[in-house]
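fyi for ur records
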Amino acid sequence: MLISVYIPFLVTAALAVLAPPVAHRLPPRPAALALACAALVTAAGWAGSLALLAFSGMAQIPQIAEEGRWSVSALRSQDPVYAVVAAVSTLVLAVCVVSLGVAAVRQGRHLLRARRECAELPGHTELAVLDDDVPLAFALPGAPGRIVVSRGMLRRLSDAEREALLAHERAHLRGRHHVFQSVWRLTAALNPLLRPVAVAGNFVLERWADEEAAERVGDRTVVAHAVGRAALASAGVSRPAALAATGGVVPQRVRALLAPPPARRSLPLLAGGLLLAVCCASLANAASDSDRMLDSAQWALCTAHADTTTAAPTDHDDAPGHGPDGCCANPGRPEHG
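which gave:
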């Protein structure tokens, strides 16, 4: 446990540094899936490691040890975690859990507001055109989702660029990109080290929609022009509750569209998968070591009680935990010599 419990922290830090630049060079759809998987696994590893470190300190509190029926002295002699580390881990875990709860409430309100706006839009078709001179274009998730475009935006684009813009927003809805955003926001709230992954993920989602739009339109240059013109037209106009074609770092998106489609690369994905496997294996090993320590501490307490009752027999020898029928004879726990 001394080493393995810290490996998820190292894996998270490595992915937070390496994943964003690597994801920008991969095809956007597999990159988005990989980033979402990495965020979920590393967030779980982060929380699990903090929980194990925190429990190592809480288990040594006499009241908790009494309820768990293990020896505090035996646990202290085996536990390699310093009390300060356990205390800090407890505090960090509590803060992260509260942060996750707040983020979950905000994300729930965010999606509910988007669905309510979607239901209030005029008409029943996928496309809703607003009679507004302010240039707007975004996708609202719902059941089903809607694409919202203002007349001000449509006036600024050619026919081909309008088709590219609508194909981009349609790709957001078809790919359920709001689910990816929710995953990254919640995991970043639980694990602050994952914030760069969330930023990279949002960029990758826009690239994913760009590439699908380029396939639909059949001309990458037209999509690049549509993205650039839409971004210039809507400068200063924000829609935080929606997926907009003007999101992400627009110059990088335009450069990527003017270049050939990104080549498929399996090595970065395999390397990332290996890191995630190491994270899971190390956490499982740390949990197994922690369980063995508790077993040993329970056995030490049972042995001490058995020695005490043998040396000084009383009328309470057959009480639970104080005799051959007590915790020492519990078949659910393996005996450790």
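The two ends are 20 Å apart (CA to CA). thats all i got for now
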